[in-house]
């Protein structure tokens, strides 16, 4: 293990055999496996956003129905994300991520074979259930292995998701036109299953974090582990920082790396601005490119100065960027530039909030904290999915995204209640 890890980890691991400690090589392997998985997940989700135009025509649905689909699947995903603090004491994180990817692949296949909008929605709900482990389990996994530079590591993970999202609009128009949306989904289902199998095959090579190793070797009964998990939930739900930072995610309609951006941007660009699908893909790629650069820059900065102030600045800039995009016309160069800047600012919120959560809790509480964070922070996604669809249907994109922009200002105000804790020394 590296020097400088915090006292909690050192205390817990002092009794462990040397061979159980996490080496630098093992940390790097865990990092790139998790990053690659995150990129593939967002690539698959990003491709689906390009199918909504065809799906809306084939199934005869509008923005409201699309919003209901987003609401249902995200409600299920949010609830499942909140449960992993109780599951991780009984299963290795790499295996949970592997099984999640396989389930996601099955859901993508169901969507591809769907003969009705209801069947398609059922498939997307299975996808959401499978992907639920990625954020809370993946974030806790990385935060536990890299306590010194969480902001940078978590930002890198978010940026890899951005790379997957960036590749999607470049390849999706070609795949949908050449193969059709159903065949494209079947190919993506195979890719998700391969990633899941890879996780399961390689899980033996990736040990748990030091705290997780200690828990697994403690001899605690299953009932004891469950009680300890519930106790950790009670502790983190009394943690003011955790509740406030989770609320910042909850009040914001966009900026989660997907969600309403993936659902409504492409239909707006094609149906409202009159762009062909290929050009709309390039515009979406500009937004995703910003989502690669922004998290890395803001995460790196937050490891060196006040993470709270960096997040507040990011939220203010996200509001400004959202207002600009809301009223942007079809002129391509200004549109591409505004979407890139929008991506830089809005994608950084996920990175910074996760790092603040990890800073605010003890290592033994981390799994419960991330599960609670993603439950609280994402519980509003169904509401915003329907609300945005209704606003798009009756008032248009400009009004809908202007309302979304204001939510960042609310988040910036909420951040004033956060008290920063001392960092792990570099």
Short description:
The protein is mainly alpha-helical and 426 residues long. The chain is 77% helix and 0% strand. It has one domain: Growth Hormone, Chain: A.
- Estimate the helix proportion, in percent: over 70%
Write down how many β-strands occur, each being a DSSP E stretch of 2 or more residues.
Answer: 0
Structural class: mainly alpha
Which fold name fills CATH's third level, the topology?
Growth Hormone, Chain: A
* CATH level-1 class: Mainly Alpha
Mean pLDDT: 80
The CATH homologous superfamily is termed: MFS general substrate transporter like domains
Ends apart, CA distance between termini: 14 Å
Which ranges are low-confidence, i.e. pLDDT below 50, for 5 or more consecutive residues?
1-20
Backbone shape: globular
Total helical elements: 21
Please identify, by name, the CATH architecture: Up-down Bundle
* Rg over C-alpha atoms, rounded to the nearest angstrom: 21 Å
Plain-language structure description:
- The protein is an all-alpha fold and 426 residues long.
- The chain has one domain (22-210, 222-417): Growth Hormone, Chain: A, CATH 1.20.1250.20.
- The protein contains 21 helices and no strands.
- It has helices at 7-13, 24-49, 52-59, 63-81, 84-87, 93-113, 117-131, 134-145, 150-179, 181-202, 210-216, 222-236, 240-251, 260-272, 277-302, 307-326, 332-346, 348-360, 366-378, 381-394, 397-414.
- α16 (307-326) packs antiparallel against α17.
Which terms summarize this structure?
426 residues; mainly alpha; Growth Hormone, Chain: A; 0% strand
């Amino acid at each position: 293990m590296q020097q400088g890890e915090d006292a909690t980890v050192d205390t817990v691991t002092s009794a462990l055999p040397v061979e159980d400690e996490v080496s630098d090589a093992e940390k790097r392997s865990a990092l790139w496996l998790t990053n690659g998985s995150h990129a593939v997940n967002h690539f698959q989700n990003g491709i689906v956003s390009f199918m909504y135009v065809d799906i809306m025509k084939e199934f005869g649905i509008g923005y409201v129905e699309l919003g209901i689909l987003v609401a249902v699947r995200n409600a299920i995903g949010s609830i499942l994300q909140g449960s992993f603090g109780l599951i991780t004491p009984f299963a290795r994180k790499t295996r949970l991520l592997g099984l999640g990817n396989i389930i996601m692949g099955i859901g993508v296949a169901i969507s591809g074979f769907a003969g009705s909008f209801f069947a398609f929605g059922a498939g997307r709900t299975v996808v959401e259930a499978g992907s639920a482990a990625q954020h809370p389990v993946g974030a806790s996994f990385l935060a536990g292995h890299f306590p010194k530079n969480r902001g940078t590591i978590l930002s890198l993970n978010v940026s890899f998701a951005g790379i997957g999202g960036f590749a999607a609009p470049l390849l999706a128009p070609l795949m949908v036109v050449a193969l059709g949306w159903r065949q494209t989904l079947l190919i993506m289902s195979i890719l998700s299953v391969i990633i899941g199998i890879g996780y399961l095959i390689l899980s033996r090579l990736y040990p748990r974090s030091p705290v997780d190793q200690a828990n697994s070797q403690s001899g605690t009964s299953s009932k004891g582990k469950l009680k300890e998990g519930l106790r950790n939930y009670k502790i983190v739900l009394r943690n003011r920082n955790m509740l406030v930072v989770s609320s910042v995610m909850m009040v914001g309609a966009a900026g989660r790396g997907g969600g309403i951006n993936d659902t409504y941007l492409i239909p707006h660009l094609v149906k409202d601005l009159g762009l062909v699908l290929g050009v709309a893909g390039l515009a979406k790629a500009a937004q995703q490119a910003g989502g690669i650069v922004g998290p890395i820059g803001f995460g790196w900065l937050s490891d060196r100065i006040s993470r709270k102030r960096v997040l507040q600045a990011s939220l203010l800039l996200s509001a400004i960027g959202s207002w600009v995009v809301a009223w942007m016309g079809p002129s391509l160069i200004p549109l591409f530039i505004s979407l890139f800047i929008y991506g830089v600012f809005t994608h950084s919120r996920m990175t910074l909030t996760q790092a603040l959560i990890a800073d605010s809790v003890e290592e033994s509480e981390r799994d419960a904290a991330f599960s609670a964070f993603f439950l609280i922070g994402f519980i509003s996604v169904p509401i915003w999915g329907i609300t945005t669809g209704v606003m798009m249907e009756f008032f248009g994109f400009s009004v809908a995204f202007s309302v979304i922009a204001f939510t960042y200002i609310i988040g910036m105000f909420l951040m004033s209640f956060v008290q920063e804790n001392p960092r792990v020394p570099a």
